[in-house]
Amino acid sequence: MIRIFKHYISSAYLWLIISEWLIFYLAMYLGSDVRFLNVSPWYSGKYIVDASIIFSSILTLACMGLGLYRRSLVWQDYNLVLRACVCELCFSRSSYH
Questions:
Q1: pTM (whole model) above 0.85
Q2: What is the per-residue pLDDT across 53-62, written as a single tens digit (0 to 9) for each?
């Protein structure tokens, strides 16, 4: 257990949050490379790094705010389906703007 801001967080959840942030970061960074594979990109290298950091931070905070990192997850928890749908809506809307 790690104490952050007077809250105890399991190290497994902390590693999950860090790894998911890294996956979001790499998804945007590498996705932009694949998108502009045969065309010269209109952005600089620093711009896409900053945009990837902001993108992955916002999505990770959205997952935390929606309660996807909870200790009491069980398969009969139907609220999880609603949270996942709302999270997917946030992801799909943020990628178009």
A1: no
A2: 998 998 888 8
